[in-house]
Task: structure prediction
Amino acid sequence: QVQLAESGGGLVQAGGSLRLSCAASRSIGNMFMSWYRQPPGKQRELVAGISTSGMTNYADSVKGRFSISRDSAKNTVFLQMNNMKPDDTAVYYCYARWLGSGYWGQGTQVTVSS
Result:
């Protein structure tokens, strides 16, 4: 089992920045980690992912603005969000894939005002 705890959400103006953190209850060294988001009234969507070797992938809508990273020593994954837009408003979820199972955090609200 893996418990994930997101933090760092909040209210920010358009053009601003936020940094989300996802702390895992155990070592993330062998886990593929991702960030998803669910905008109001819409389905959950992938934002960014990072492999155990550090390879990353991003949704087209956030390329060049968001950056995912991992600190295996701290069992933590980060999502740096810059030049934010109102369309980035959503609940952001951390996701871990480990030994064939998936684990979700409870989510953190991000609101971008225009």
In short: The longest strand covers residues 90-98. Residues 70 and 77 are 4 Å apart (CA to CA). The radius of gyration is 13 Å.
